[in-house]
Amino acid sequence: MEKALFGAGCFWGVEDFFLQVPGVSNAESGYAGGLTQAPTYRQVCNGDTNHAEVVEVTFDPAKVDYGTLVDLFFRMHNPTTRNRQGPDVGTQYRSVIFTHGPEQERVAEERKKAVDASGKWKTPVVTQIEPAPTFWKAEESHQRYFQKHGGHCHVSFAELTKEDATSR
Hints:
The chain has a single domain (about 1-165), classed as Peptide methionine sulphoxide reductase MsrA (Peptide Methionine Sulfoxide Reductase, Chain A, 2-Layer Sandwich). It has six helices and eight strands; from the N terminus they run E-H-E-H-E-H-E-E-E-H-E-E-H-H. The longest helix has 16 residues, at about 100-115. Helix 3 (about 65-75) packs across helix 4. The strands form two sheets. It has a six-stranded mixed sheet, with helices on one face. By secondary structure, it is of the alpha+beta class.
């Protein structure tokens, strides 16, 4: 099993999305990229820590490769808005890929360049790509939030796969 770490806005939707991907065995909401040790949701939302809301994805590379996860990441949110996704505004909602090693960094940079060159977006991709810092798991109330409470805030995996099937 391998790990991937993505920030694409509110972690509830990102977590729910990646849990639907075949080959992903786990996804946990949390915080990364800031200065505070063991930050809380309140601290992160107040903008006091510079952490991003992220999801740590555990996946089986024999079933889904890292490049596919990065491609899905770029399709599930708007990577051209700095510190914002939809109505959520702040550095905690930034678009970021935290990489585990040089191969993940290479793949992330390559895929970012491809998305930027694709013409899909009118403005440049602003996704940050950085080495993975410490991942701090979010409070239990934020884990599997949509499974517990319902709702959604991102494109669902089912919608993306249906879109792929109809565009062929």
